[in-house]
Specification:
about 525 residues, globular
Length: about 525
């Protein structure tokens, strides 16, 4: 028997005899709560979003088609672990049961759910996150804004492990999270969250353990510059030979004035990956380790099934989850962190954060860095771990891992204000309570302003007599900032002024002129006259 109970927040608690039962209930509950978004995510995952959103989604669909999400999912499904296939099938059956029973709720473009759509959605989520964290594809201001930490029993008032999960996901449909509790009588009992349309919890807790994730800027994808033949755009150079690109035509249907209009495009691949751009006799091909994953589903099931830390690591060891910082804590008091990444081993003669030449064997990937070679920390003497999108070198006290222990391309982040705030709090507090941890999740103190605001005020003091501030707007802003307590409350004028100023300052500043008083004031002038 399958039951779905709702708590006072409306969160579904799904009970069944076994994993397929709770998967069925999970699919049904998601469809009940968010059918439109669930089905929409599947349409994006298979490159059919234009059928819903029209011309605005055309480039998104063709980009998805480049990654052959349907073809890859179709090829992967038969080779998945049998228990995983059964689990996915049950989830799909649950969603389809709701669709069958409630046809009036199904959007005009809606269709039954398939296992291939589910697998394609996992693949697309990994691909989008990889694209998002590639500096070669555009400037990276901050690839993530999530926080997580774990505290060992000896540093908590209740003598029990405390884990905090604070994911800040983008407010776009495929990243919105659905909260649920899945409880099977034969073992699985996990409370957590997953994007709409996924059948597995991606961060959560059981009675035994908890884990969370934050985005890391791991360099697991590379952009290759391909030299094309000026007389034949299908040929590209590799070593002393010319190779043919793999080309195929794909057609999408675009909603236009109430009807679907076909649009076709020829998509091209080099042996490195899909060609994402062309510029004269050069083209740019993208190789992505996430594309080379065989099974994106089973690892997340095994994270939830884990009986101990060894099981948890074993769920990650095949590198089928291509990225994320993981922080783990369990009821035994064990803590664990890994800078998880499906990281290619490559020559250190190149800057892999920039496009590299594709016509030489010297830029080819050699293998993947084995899991036991990734930065990781287990049961640190400090009794805590934290990661707020910072590098492995700033996760805990005592420097248990060092930047010199790993290839230069293994990790690129430094630290940030959120990480510094939580790190300092954990260092200073050796008797953490649940209430304190909850307060810290909602903490509004702005460490960045604590560091930058004094320099901005000093810049104003040094230049005030010579500045043109005839309308008084700069001095008004300085007064607001002077009186601000660095707390980012929603109604705080100081937070608003500082945030807008910081965005403009970041646009102006470079590593060569960081901290320039003149740039600080220029950014403030631009801020107050642009508000």
């Amino acid at each position: 028997m399958i039951s779905i109970d709702r708590d006072t927040n409306g969160t579904p608690h799904i009970y069944g005899a076994d994993e397929p039962d709770v998967a069925f209930g999970f699919g049904y509950a998601q469809a009940y709560d968010h059918l439109d978004l669930m089905l929409r995510n599947y349409m994006e995952a298979v490159g059919r979003l234009s059928e819903i959103e029209g011309a605005s989604a055309v480039e998104t669909d063709f980009r998805t088609r480049l990654w052959r999400t349907v073809e890859c999912a179709d090829a992967a499904y038969p080779s998945l672990d049998a228990k995983t296939r059964t689990y996915i099938d049950a989830f799909v059956a649950g969603a389809n049961r709701y669709i069958e029973n409630n046809p009036q709720e199904v959007p005009a473009w809606g269709e039954s759910v398939t296992p291939i759509q589910v697998i394609a959605l996992y693949r697309l989520l990994h691909i989008r996150l990889n694209e998002w964290t590639m500096p070669e594809l555009g400037p990276l201001a901050d690839a993530g804004m999530s926080n997580q930490w774990a505290v060992a029993p000896e540093r908590t008032q209740g003598n029990a492990t405390i884990c905090a999960m604070d994911p800040h996901v983008p407010w776009v449909p495929i990243f919105r999270m659905y909260e649920a509790h899945l409880c099977a009588a034969d073992g699985l009992d996990i409370y957590g969250a997953a994007p709409y349309g996924l059948p597995t919890i991606i961060l959560g807790h059981t009675a035994r353990h908890a884990w969370s994730i934050t985005i890391n800027q791991c360099d697991v994808s590379d952009l290759y510059v391909e030299q094309m033949d000026a007389n034949n755009p299908r040929l590209y150079q590799y070593q002393d030979q010319w190779r043919k690109t793999d080309e195929y035509e794909t057609t999408i249907q675009v909603k236009e004035n109430g009807r679907l209009v076909p649009q076709s495009r020829i998509l091209s691949w080099s042996h490195h990956g899909p060609i994402v751009a062309r510029d004269g006799d050069k083209s740019y091909a993208l190789r992505m380790s996430a594309y080379e994953i065989d099974d994106p589903v089973t690892p997340f099931l095994n994270l939830a099934r884990a009986q101990d830390l060894t099981d948890f690591k074993n769920a990650l060891v095949k590198l089928e989850i291509p990225m994320f910082n993981f922080v783990y804590g369990d009821a035994k008091g064990e803590l664990y962190y890994v800078y998880n990444e499906r990281c290619p081993v490559r020559s250190e003669d190149y800057d892999w954060r920039q496009p590299v030449t594709g016509w030489t064997h010297r830029t080819e990937w050699q293998m993947y860095l084995p899991f036991n070679h990734l930065p990781q920390i287990e049961n640190p003497p400090s009794g805590f771990l934290q990661n707020c999108n910072n590098s492995p070198w700033y996760v805990t006290q005592g420097d248990p891992v060092s930047v010199t222990d790993f290839p230069a391309y293994a990790a690129f982040e430094e630290t940030n204000g959120r990480a510094e705030r939580i790190y300092s709090w954990l260092v200073e507090n050796d008797s953490v309570t649940i209430a304190q941890a909850q307060d810290m999740v909602l903490d509004e103190y702005n460490v960045t302003s604590q560091e930058l605001k004094p320099a901005l005020l000093d810049a104003w003091t040094a230049q005030a007599l010579t500045l043109d501030d005839s309308d008084g707007l700069i001095s008004d802003a300085i007064e607001i900032l002077s009186e601000w307590n660095d707390v980012g409350a929603a109604a705080s004028p100081g937070m608003s002024v500082f945030s807008l100023w910081k965005m403009r300052y970041d646009d102006l500043v470079s590593s060569e002129d960081s901290g320039s008083p003149e740039l600080m004031i220029d950014a403030l002038r631009s801020t107050v006259h642009g508000m």
